[in-house]
Amino acid sequence: MRPLIARFGTYTAAVAITSIIGLMAIPVVVTQAGDVAWGVIAVAQTLAGLLGVIVSFGWGTTGPAMVAGMPANDRPQMFMESLVSRLYLATVTLPFAILIPFLLTTPEYRGMMIAACCVYLIPFLGGAWYFVGEARPRRLILFDSLPISMGTLAGVVGILLTQEIYVFIACQGVFNIVAVLGTASVIRRSGGTMARPDPSPRAAFGRLPRQLHGVITAATSSLYVGAPLIMVSAFLPAFREVYAMADRFIRYGQIALGPVVQVLQGSIASTDKTVERLRIGRTTLLAPLVGLLGGAGIALVLPWGSALLSNGRIHVGFALSIPIGVVFAGVAVSSIVGLACLIPLGQGRALAVSTVLGASIGLPLIVLAAAFLGPVMVAWSVAISELVVASYQVATVRRVLREGKG
User: Fold this and answer.
1) Could you give the 3-state DSSP secondary structure of residue 206?
2) Distance separating alpha carbons of residues 287 and 391, to the nearest angstrom
3) How far apart are CA 262 and CA 220, in angstroms?
């Protein structure tokens, strides 16, 4: 129990570092660069999250369980092979990070969105998922969370000194690169022998089919979570900053939930399958309570929190905060049940099916709502899709446990 509590505390410290500095940056950027510029940055982060699914190609989703389940000496080789594959994928993805902003914003802000999108793609080459899988949260802080957070902090100082948004973006880019290089260096040397992946394109792309379930899950989930802000930016630009602020609260809620999911991913697995299944059953019962409490908290905090973080320039009312809270409740349940329960049960296919189902329902509703109904109905569309995903995953876990499979 004590090691589990210690890991949870360290994971929470990693989240706190990232969240506090990230939250601190919001009012600074809004004040120094304007709420429109901040909204553009927020859209760039969301776009990078969508494109980052291609770069990470499922390793961020299934990677922790893969790492936890393999011998320690084999882990660095697996990571370095994934890094080579992800570098090729980043090269393929980069043109879209340049092209798509031309469709989403005006010429005045295109360069800003392109630069920010490219910068926020860099962490998808990192190894946070690796550190989670090996249950080494201190390395997660030192080589991932801390450098990335220092980049945001340096950007805050830079924009305060220069009032230039590109300084903010550039500082984050430099430290994101430092995080990726530092992570790769320490992992490569940690297996006793130096990991030497095959750098050829054939080998790099040949590893991708094994990640199919993971990338389908990550892609569809990110698509219907990221699509609302993209659609609002395209169809309802006047509401971009308001919806972006609401979206930030979901993101920070997910960050706060991260330590819970990370600890569960590293602690549910057991060589005793009876013990493992008992843990999975208890976790599945706990997940809805976590979602309910988290969703209610976001719905209540968002109206005054949005005004506080934007110095009164952006206000999210209860009409929008309530469906945003429901969205987070669904996200919380699916994060816990999907990543911490379905994967150990060998139900990666069910995880992928659940997100495809959610996307097939949510995406048409999101597009129609953005085009004809407004931002509140966009949020309710996302809420419906998230609840469908969570319900499917919970039902699957219960069925598998009842039938004695996995």
Assistant:
1) helix
2) 11
3) 21
Nearest alpha-carbon partner for 394 in 314, 320, 336, 309: 336
Give the span between the Cα atoms of 78 and 70, in whole angstroms.
10
Nearest to 22, CA basis, from 10, 14, 33, 32: 14
- Nearest residue to 100 via CA among 158, 46, 144: 46
Q: 332 vs 216, 320, 321, 345, 406, CA distance in Å? A: 19, 19, 16, 19, 23
CA nearest neighbour of 370 among 187, 158, 162, 227: 227
DSSP state of 339: I
| Residue ranges in the chain whose pLDDT is less than 70 | 1-16, 191-195, 213-214, 217, 221, 224, 262-263, 265-273, 276, 345, 404-406
Give the whole-angstrom CA distance, residue 185 versus residue 190: 9
Q: In whole angstroms, what is the distance from residue 201 CA to residue 204 CA?
A: 5
Say what the pTM is. Answer: 0.75
* Residue reference for tokens 């190609």: 57
